[in-house]
Amino acid sequence: xxxxxxxxxxxxxxxxxxxxxxxxxxxxxxxxxxxxxxxxxxxxxxxxxxxxxxxxxxxxxxxxxxxxxxxxxxxxxxxxxxxxxxxxxxxxxxxxxxxxxxxxxxxxxxxxxxxxxxxxxxxxxxxxxxxxxxxxxxxxxxxxxxxxxxxxxxxxxxxxxxxxxxxxxxxxxxxxxxxxxxxxxxxxxxxxxxxxxxxxxxxxxxxxxxxxxxxxxxxxxxxxxxxxxxxxxxxxxxxxxxxxxxxxxxxxxxxxxxxxxxxxxxxxxxxxxxxxxxxxxxxxxxxxxxxxxxxxxxxxxxxxxxxxxxxxxxxxxxxxxxxxxxxxxxxxxxxxxxxxxxxxxxxxxxxxxxxxxxxxxxxxxxxxxxxxxxxxxxxxxxxxxxxxxxxxxxxxxxxxxxxxxxxxxxxxxxxxxxxxxxxxxxxxxxxxxxxxxxxxxxxxxxxxxxxxxxxxxxxxxxxxxxxxxxxxxxxxxxxxxxxxxxxxxxxxxxxxxxxxxxxxxxxxxxxxxxxxxxxxxxxxxxxxxxxxxxxxxxxxxxxxxxxxxxxxxxxxxxxxxxxxxxxxxxxxxxxxxxxxxxxxxxxxxxxxxxxxxxxxxxxxxxxxxxxxxxxxxxxxxxxxxxxxxxxxxxxxxxxxxxxxxxxxxxxxxxxxxxxxxxxxxxxxxxxxxxxxxxxxxxxxxxxxxxxxxxxxxxxxxxxxxxxxxxxxxxxxxxxxxxxxxxxx
Length: 728
What we know:
With 728 residues, the protein is an all-beta fold.
């Protein structure tokens, strides 16, 4: 309580017989134990006011600001025209306060004393009491945990949590939460509750943090020849007993329950990805994947995996086969290695280059040829060869049914259907088909995707496609959640009539979850370039693994000799996240065919299991019309129906200047021109940035476009650049 004590003392000039004025009346002062108290006082009169004061009788805890205290007399002496009493009373009771105002400094001259009472009331504060005690808990490392308490008391108490008796910085609420526990968080937790009436410590709460197995030895990838024993070893530690279970491709291997996996008499079928699951009483931890490559003890050796193709075509139709082949020999495939297909008369009908595939690596080889014009069943042989040296020792047989022309008939051409996918991921792909029937397709013609159970997963309209014309459609579906190999079929149908009599088979490998996994979506290089051209390769990369990419994660570019040309950091991309990267490098100066590899890696741990292969052809110079496609602002993604504006910078690498009939064109997969800005006035060696604009498709999917220069009335330039747009 703030109470002012104002005393008035009047003294006339002639003291003899002078009349004195009494001080103004004051009510009793009130104070409270534990609460701040403050009051002011002054004595004034005629002809002069008091110049010093003596104050005694103050309650314990109060003092006179700026005064000298005499313990002998329990009196404060203050030299000032007025004073203040401040402090926090310590003892309750009624106290008599005496204030003497002196005419002179240091308590000299005439003085008058005035008495006042101060009543100090008891402190109403109530010491804290804990009403809810924190409870001991047991959690698994990585899980959150919260300790809570509640207390009564006046005034409202404060909280301070402690671990093993040491205060936890910032833990001053009634509850304390650890968002992600680690083993070091285990211990004894208490909370101290405090107000001015006292403090109390809670009961001890024990936190036990159980830790799942931690691998101290990870299985390592290795390559072995057919025949000997392959050994994969791992080791984990835990506070409890550990059991092990090895897997291949995400599937348990029966009986493989030791920390070491021994594969005796290794065969080609043993090749694959291996991991081991360590389990204790808390939970399970999966090791990194180790890749086992099985090699045949010969220079040229190959395995043929699933083929993606139609099982039947109409007479004279286009046959497309995609073979997944693995180099299981000891020799790197060079420019003279091919995958061939020949008929029963040993006449070759198609070749696919196998350039730059290292031992243990897998590639996709496309074989494309024209079907016989006479209906029937035909046999073909697929076999790899090294030109001028030998055929590889193994081959596979292909059976093709050639059908007579039908009203509804189709050829299944190229597809972007992936080889593998992560469990539960969205698979988006395109399929190019040709109408090889005798009637045009209308609004009731569809292309459908079915699983092995016959359930339709996706469909796309084949509207308005004349006989002999081709169309690329987009399909998408959700990959199964369980790892394994899954078969699908593509088949056209006419609503109300029925399915077409041919279908195409597709195979998808759903991968077991991996710490490091990636999906490459590329804006590709031009297939052909001039010597020494600057090449720009743009990628959209998605983290399909179980761990975030950190400072040790990179995507690399290397040539066919294994020389790394560039590294780009992938730091900070979480699971499911996407980033864009761009490689820039110089094309070789010698004409020829060159292969490059894009592959992600975790520094000091492993390369990711998938890579992207880029093949370019370096043309000889000079050319009358020649162009280099330089930088482009073409986007990676766009919204359905959005206007896409971008620029493309090109250089005239030919021997003639570009005139008013030279253009840069943009066209879609159906060869529909979307834009063609002029390239007039670009001299040899000079560059030009062209502005292009088009409307993105209205349906989500992956779309491919071609940038190509041309001279009107003469020809397209020999080289083209391909760009890819993800509509989402």
